[in-house]
Fold this protein.
Amino acid sequence: MMNRQLKAVYFDGTLSLPHQVVLEYGENLPYVQFTLADGTYHQWLLSSLRFSRYDHTVELRNVNLPDAELIVESEEFAERFYQIMLEHSRVDVSTRLTNLGVKQLFILTLALLAAIVLGYIYVLPVVSEKAVDFLPQTIDNEIGTLYVESVSPTWSVDTAKTRSLEEFAKELNLKNRKQLRFVVVRSEVVNAYAIPNGQIVVHTAILDRMTHPEELAALLGHEAAHINHRHSLKMLSRSLAGYMITSLLLGDLSGVAAVIADNADMIQSLSYSRKFEQEADEEGLKILIENQLDPQGMVYLFEMLEKESGRAIPVILSSHPLTEQRLNYVRDWIENSDYEITPNPRIKELFAQLKN
Amino acid sequence: MEFTPPLEDRQPSRYHLEFWGKGNEYFSIMIVNWLLTLLTVGLYYPWARAKRLEYIYGNISLDEHRFHFSGTGKEMFIGFIKLIGLYLAAMFVYAVLRYIGNSPLLAILFLYAAIFAFVPLAIHGAFRYRMSRLSYRGIRFGYRGDRNTLFREFLKGVLLTIVTLGIYALWLEMNVRRYTVSHVRYGDVRFSSNCEGTEWFVINLKGYFLTIFTFGIYSFWWMKERFEYKVRTTTLYREEKKITCYSTATGMDFLTLHLVNFLLVILTLGLGFAWAEMRTQKFYCKHIQLVGDIDTNTVVQTEESFTDAMGEDALDFMDIDIA
């Protein structure tokens, strides 16, 4: 309750000469006051004070006298005055946080980091996937066209087989939301892939190794699902969001941390792509059933690819990782589904054309 | 050591420079800066910078009195916005030249010219702002350099650097330093630097080759020479009185400083950076000795107040160190 007095040093902002003064302050006083040797009286309102504390040294400045400073060396005053300034809401957030001490800050930082990591794993994929829904299809087309333009010059297109594949696809309902285009490329690499603009590329090598037309139908269904569900764009959206977050987080940190972050991001997107693969497998199975084809076609396809991977890892497996888990999932799915098979001589005929 | 002792008839005194910053305090500040910058998606950055500078300057004391940096995040934020405006304007001119004027060569030339023109302006701006916000015992520092003079000096230096395949850069560096340091004021105390390119060239030539011959070990002695040169060419004047500066740091001191800092940062996976930075500041303050006869009790406020933080951000933007 009582006002307190203590010695302080005052600089008036016109001369560097220190003035010894007696400072008076109190818990209930909305100001501090002191009188100079020449009799000049100063009353500084707490609301116009700036307060800097270095250990037991406190520097007070008045916004109305920007050059003047009042310096108090007292541990007790430093503590008390900080409380007074807190009560008068004259301490900014940053200073309050800083005053928590290293230990608390460390915990706070760890908590925030944990929140970010959790958000990164659980929230970011959902949000960035959802974001794709707001993007027009023209973006898929542009990205796809750009890709096709850069790789198509290296393609050796088999025009006859391409025509047969187009016919084959026409026989199926691929549940596609946009126009699909097909191309058969002569290549010894066992591979097939979908491009976001609706282009599905099938290599001759993968066709050669197939034994059932349902395998090809399963493959087309799987690839069409990638396009329908805009998986490429979702992956892109997710990695961009991931990149933005990591660069914001580690913007100021060293290159080592950035490399770790980059790799963490890659591992994350790999497992993410597995989720898409499963989605496409399921869609592929649904397409087979819809078309009254034997869903075992998907199993045959996987078995063929697995046998292939015994010899050398086909490219298709590096982009579409084939795991025991995926094959089991497909088998279970088939077991638990009702379906009807109608023989389709037309696709058998077209399949034969593709095989020769 | 080329330190000239003060004349006998004057009363020479030693001024005691000291750094009080502590690793744990600085670490707290940096962590809070990082947290708030993160939570505001980067917008807090200028405020973070202000906090950091306030802490560092506030912990340097000369004869028991601390320096004070009063720059604010708001000022630096405005500076940053201006900088972005400038950048966009330059990009606009570039795009016009490149795509509408259809002259890529002219566009590239413009870009180079813009960068070269920008550097001296940024140095000028940063000195003006930083010095205007720095005070000691209630008396402000100030920078009175003329922008156009610095600009001409810089442009001349850049052209000569190109002609001499880079060698002149050392003269350019010293010319800019001499000009800027010599226009710093602390109240009615005038800073002065008589550093010059030829001596700087000799130090660096010697340092470069000896560092190679000793497989890098000499680099610490090279650092020592560079530091010592910059310090001993700086003098403070007030009428006929002066303060001379010299360095007491040895090559071994530099080696120890950097070796310990390196271990401190590596062994803590980077978290020790705060302690390393405090050690460095302490090192500089400890090894700069000031001797002279200027009475620090009678310095008069002379500098006008000044508000423009654009240079401050620009220097940070381009990573130029004005220390």
Notes: The CA atoms of residues 59 and 116 of chain B lie 35 Å apart. Residues 104-132 of chain B form the longest helix (29 residues). The interface with chain A takes residues 20, 24-25, 27-29, 31-36, 38, 41-42, 47, 51, 54, 58-59, 65-66, 68, 70, 135-140, 187, 270, 296-301, 305 of chain B (CB under 8 Å).
